[in-house]
Amino acid sequence: MTAVQTVSAKSGAAGSAVFPDSDSRRYRYFEPRSKRATHYEDVTVDVQPDPERYLLQDWIISFPNGKGAYTKDNTGALSSNWHAFRAPDQEWERTHYQRQSKIEAMVQAVIANGRKSGAPKSFDKAWIKILQNHLGAWKHAEFGLGTSLMQAQRYGYTQMINNATLTNSSYKLRLSQDITLYLAEIGMDVPGFDDTAGKRVWLEDKGWQGTREAIESIMGSADYLEQYFATNIVFESLVGELFRSGFLMQVASSNGDFITPPVISSAEADYERNLANTIDLMHLLVTDNQHGAHNKKLFQGWVNKHVALANKAAAGLQPIWSQPHSKPVQYADARAQSVERIKKILGELGLTLPKE
Predict the structure, then answer these.
(1) Residue 314's CB: how many other CB atoms inside 10 A?
(2) How far is the C-alpha of 354 from the C-alpha of 169, rounded, in Å?
(3) Closest among 83, 15, 84 to 51, alpha carbons compared
(4) Which residues form a coiled coil (predicted)?
(5) For domain 93-348, which CATH number applies: 3.20.20.370, 1.10.620.20, 3.90.1150.10, 1.10.10.10?
(6) For the stretch 174-187, what's the b/e string if a residue is b when 16 or more beta carbons lie within 10 angstroms of its beta carbon?
(7) pLDDT per residue over 15-41, tens digit each?
């Protein structure tokens, strides 16, 4: 992308800066990734100002310590051009709300139709216990990641990075809400169902404490890019997909449950979008002409730290695979797929998976 060039004496006067369309009636002030700017770029690029580009008078407001509204040192990563990133999913406010609305309509229709047909009453008894305890616990994992990313998006240096992080957060919080409402609704059809059990399991069950530790470590990071990286590159591939796709969606139907898979399936589609955005951003940073080596070393450190926590979390969840009456998939197989998955993801960034 072409950076703004200013005259030697900084000025806000008309004509004092040169930008891509400064000599055109179109007034396109940024360099689009392709020949023509997309709608996403029109409403996203440079919406968040940058004193190095257009805010010649510097930040209008600053924090008490003198820092401006957004600073580059909110992450250990470095970039020669933070504004180069464009999210592959091209998502902005309108498209995000539209997609979320469609997902919610689908989820609610599935639940309503399932309850109308009396489906929850035919769930295997052991499976009902699993939904009550372990799916009930998982909603807290999704909520934790969602709140972590919500906090992280405040510190991104450009609107493009913040948009991708915030939509990621929104998807996580939506899924947590979907699970909460889903369990509450089927609980009305299943005698003795305790929709508060998930919280107790999350806080007290030994098997879930590794997952709590992994998520709380992500939440506790002071580096917003580490939070984004650890969520999508590490935790989701080694724990999130393992539990959602490798267990819930594989095992539910053989235990009489045809409602849970479509409720959870939207999360897998969400993750593919979030992962693509994350890989694209991190790839820009590891291939940066000036700072690529620094970023690659930094990211490998994040991998080493969060993979160890994710492995511990996955191991803690292993006993859940033995609890259903019908066991169409084994933990070892699901785990092998998740390990292969993260190896491919890391390979795209030139990073390696540490040995267990």
Answers:
(1) 23
(2) 28
(3) 83
(4) none
(5) 1.10.620.20
(6) bbbbbbbbbbebbb
(7) 456 655 555 555 566 777 777 788 888
pLDDT digits (tens, 9 = 90+) for 92-145: 999 999 999 999 999 999 999 999 999 999 999 999 999 999 999 999 999 999
In angstroms, how far is CA 247 from the centroid of its own chain? Answer: 20
Average pLDDT of the chain to the nearest whole number = 91
Q: What is the C-alpha to C-alpha distance for residues 353 and 356, in angstroms, rounded to an integer?
A: 9
CA distance 292 to 286: 4
Q: What angle do CA 85, 87, 90 make, to 5 degrees?
A: 135
**Tokens 């396109």 correspond to what residue?**
28
Q: Helix, strand or coil for residue 83?
A: helix
Residues 6+ apart with CB under 8 A from 274: 164, 167, 168, 171, 231, 232, 236
Task: Give the distance from CA 106 to its chain's centroid.
Answer: 21
Q: How far is CA 134 from CA 128, 170, 289, in A?
A: 10, 22, 46
DSSP letter (8 states) at residue 2: P
CA distance 343 to 356: 13
d(Cα 195, Cα 24) in Å, to the nearest integer? Answer: 61
| Sequence ranges of the domains in the chain | 93-348
Rounded to whole angstroms, the Cα distance separating 16 from 8 reads 10
Tokens 């940073």 — which residue?
Answer: 285
**Element at 125 (helix H, strand E):** helix 125-130
pLDDT of residue 35: 74
At 50-69, the pLDDT tens digits run: 888 777 778 877 888 888 88
- Nearest Cα neighbor of 229 from 243, 240, 218 is 218
Query: What is the tally of helices (H) and strands (E) in the chain?
Result: 13, 2
